[in-house]
Amino acid sequence: MRLGLFTTLSFALLLPLAVSAQSSGSLFGETGKTFTISAAPQYPVPLSTATLSFFSNSLDLANATLTVNVDGKSIYQGVVRPVAVALGKTGSITNVAATIVAGGTNYKQTLSIQPQDVALVAEPISSSPPLYPGKSSVPLEGDVRVVAVASFRNVSGQALNPAALSYSWTVDDIKISNSSGIGKEAIMVASPIQYSARNVSVAIMSSDGSLVGGASISLLPLDPSVRIYENDPLLGIRYDRALSNTYSINGSEATLYAAPFSFPTTNGSPLLQWFLNGSAAQTGNFITLRPTGSGQGSASLSLVSSSGSFTTATTNLLLSFGESSGFNLFGL
Q: Residue 279: how many CA atoms within 13 Å on its side-chain side?
């Protein structure tokens, strides 16, 4: 089944006896413990912070005190509240010990956090002109290839082969089993419908299950557009200046270039149709306009770009030419 840009990094969990990983990826204490710990975000960035929160169904945390030690050093003492913990570089382990004192009794939990570097990169299957310095946009009625770039390292700093990692993909909270598995670093998803977003996430695990990381990305479609540029005989296509409203033909001829943006290209390039004074002139990216006769005149030029039945965009230019009346204009 085929399913419909910040980069999120991740962390992996080392699970001591006092802590287990839940399906959500947060950290919680063992069943039966007097309090639990959760860490957020689910996949924090290496060299950033993770926020620890504390919960209990049996302790009165409002009247308790909390001590948090990181790698043997106390970083917080006071009332029970969320505590931010600084994380190390990719693959390094941060050991956390939390002690809650309630009713004169000490309760302790420990956990370890080992950040792993994961980035999700969206590669829209959409149109953009050659040499365009920007990135193609997520198209309507198209597809997007999402690639996971994982850099897993163990505690000694040794890198793991990304092709040996297991990838579990989720699109809009639906697990995509046929796109998940060992070495499946990419997934093809359908673009979201107009005015909506599509959320894609991946959970990645080492072969022995000791390291887990992940990332997520939100795909937002961009309405298609088509722009007209002058094709200068010396400078080439003037991508620095899109034409709008009016354009004067000062020489014997002018060649214009059409650039469609954010059209789906899964089934090929979008169709480009030029219209001169309402009549179809030609198709394709280029049109050459040559005034003939004598005199001054004007004409309307329209460009329609389409891909499929619903994805279309139009742009218009008012052309002026000549020195006195009597000219006519045709497109080749």
A: 7
